Amino acid sequence: MTAFKTIKGVPVKTISGDRAGASFEGQLYYDSDGVGIFKFVGGLGTGAWASGGALNATRAGIGAAGTQTAALGFGGNSSVNTEIYNGSSWTEVNNLNTGRRQAGNDGVQTSAIFCGGYRDSPGGNADFVESWDGTNWTEVANLNTNRSVMGSAGVSNASIIVYGGDPSTANTEVWNGTAWTEVNNLNTARIQVAGFGTTTAALGFGGGPPATAINESWNGTSWTEVANLNTARFGISGAGVQTSGLAISGASPGPTNVLAVTEEWNGSGWTEVADLATARAQTGGTGVSTLAIAFGGSGDNGTLTEEWTQPHVIKTIDLS
């Protein structure tokens, strides 16, 4: 088998089967499993949720960081437990120093941060912050304001922005790895606001009370209101970057208020896509808009993990 085929003298990569589904849009390649078969990576297809491995313990308001195949889950239900996910199962690793839930959180599996949150004993919102180095949690400089159920976005234990939270506030703070700095506020004060992105390009959506669909975009200096969610709710989790992401699950007022709804953000508006298999709120969510993970949550389903995959469409070009 030759390493390359050509079209009009242009070499085309040889790949077995449809492995280019994870490659870039617009790629043309030769399928070595076929005979004279060229394939083209088109736009994104329809996404869906599938079951993943269960957490070792039920937890709502759990922190999340990482990717679909290398995730970190920490805290929740005032627990100190930390677990890592390898794409199929969760393993317990070193604990937080202080158990709490509904804290600001973000990062990757080897470098994450957990900010503020609510603790049951003694009760109340916290201002302390813990940093994860891939092995241990270390307490670092406190937030300027005690709070829980805030939105957050960041890429490591040295870079995160937190905004909103309980008591209902619009305050925004940025962490540079050493200290917290108060910056420009949200336009609308909210608790249980969700978010994703970075310290210079973030999104903050949903929250309450009452349940809201408000969505604001952060450019590193100030917040601007942009297109609202289709479904107003709080207790949402998010996965993605400022221009492409998911708003996952949540709750709205009512006797049976947990939701399975998922919405996809394309940088300018929200579109409803496939629901979670199991409705719940306060899940941990992380990843990107095409490969995300949601785990934990409220009620009797607090160990469940679901994985979101949205593949590219592979188009066949038969030149035989």
Write a brief caption for the model.
With 320 residues, the protein is mostly beta strands.
The tally of structural domains comes to 2
Instruction: Label the CATH architecture of the largest domain.
Output: 6 Propeller
CATH class of the largest domain: Mainly Beta
Tally the beta strands: 31
- Through-space gap between termini: 16 Å
In order across it, which strands form the biggest sheet?
Answer: 1-2-3-4-31
Question: Spans of 5+ residues with little confidence (pLDDT < 50)?
Answer: none
Helix/sheet category: mainly beta
Global geometry: globular
Number of DSSP helical runs: 0
What does this structure look like?
- It is built from no helices and 31 strands.
- It has 2 domains: 4-44, no CATH class; 48-309, Kelch-type beta propeller (Neuraminidase), CATH 2.120.10.
- With 320 residues, it is an all-beta fold.
- The chain has strands spanning 4-7, 10-15, 28-31, 37-44, 48-51, 63-66, 71-74, 82-85, 90-93, 104-108, 111-115, 118-120, 123-125, 129-132, 137-140, 151-156, 159-163, 172-175, 180-183, 194-197, 202-205, 215-218, 223-226, 237-241, 244-251, 258-265, 270-273, 284-287, 291-295, 305-309, 312-318.
- Helix content is 0%, strand content 46%.
- Strands 1-2-3-4-31 form a 5-stranded mixed sheet, with no helix packed on it. A 4-stranded antiparallel sheet has the order 5-30-29-28, with no helix packed on it.
